[in-house]
Amino acid sequence: MPDPVHPTAEDIQSLPESSRPSAPVRTDTFRKTRPEIVGPETPQQPFPVYLSGAVQRGFGRGGKDLGCPTANLPDESITPMSSVCEPGVYYGYGQVSTATNGDHKLPEEDVKVLPMVMSLGWNPFYKNERLTAEIHIMHDFTSDFYGHEMRALVLGHIRPELDYTSRGQEGLIEDIETDKRVALKSLARPDYQKFASDPHFLDHTSKL
Ligand SMILES: Cc1cc2nc3c(=O)[nH]c(=O)nc-3n(C[C@H](O)[C@H](O)[C@H](O)COP(=O)(O)O)c2cc1C
Prior knowledge:
Layout: H1 9-13, H2 28-32, E1 49-54, H3 61-66, E2 71-72, H4 75-82, E3 88-99, E4 114-121, E5 132-137, E6 148-159, H5 168-187, H6 190-193
Antiparallel strand pairs: 1-6, 2-5, 3-4, 3-6, 4-5
The chain binds flavin mononucleotide (FMN).
Residues 58-62, 66, 68, 70, 89, 117, 119, 123-126, 134, 136, 161-162, 172, 176, 179 line the site of flavin mononucleotide (FMN).
């Protein structure tokens, strides 16, 4: 039975488009009262959520319009997350690995386990028709990594996905900057930090 207060992304996806709940609009009070650290001292159910899949292209607005490039996971790789979590913004660790076809090698600094923020939902500001899971790894990559396998471990929820009316894109950009800061501070706690060496991630150091 779907939780009537916090339906999962999958519950919402199964509804006809016209009866999906609309995302809350971001208010000034929300902006002014955002906490700098979120979640309990130790990750709690349903976290950690383990994800992996080959990186797909999105619409490309993340890098161009928002200064925040995102890597999309294929639909079938989203289920471990969408079946247990409501749409929203989440934090954890991510890692890009060598290409699935093996012909494009990324430098050592690009294949490390790194902090990430993730958006699960329908991007209400852009009114996407499809549910997506988009991951922004907090790192300056030397090149694109479409087609490469990405692994991620989601450890906590930051906020719901919001719609932006009054200050539009500027408000979204500001919130994403805050999300990144909140993610870094929340991950700095010892019980979160230890997941950076979880066996879900590949140990590239042994092969280099
Ligand atoms: C940390 C983070 C938070 C986001 N929060 C929202 C949000 O509250 N509302 C929204 O409509 N989209 C949100 N997005 C999604 C962006 O709109 C989306 O990543 C962007 O449009 C890029 O998608 P594209 O590469 O498919 O063009 C968020 C993305 C990230 C990485």
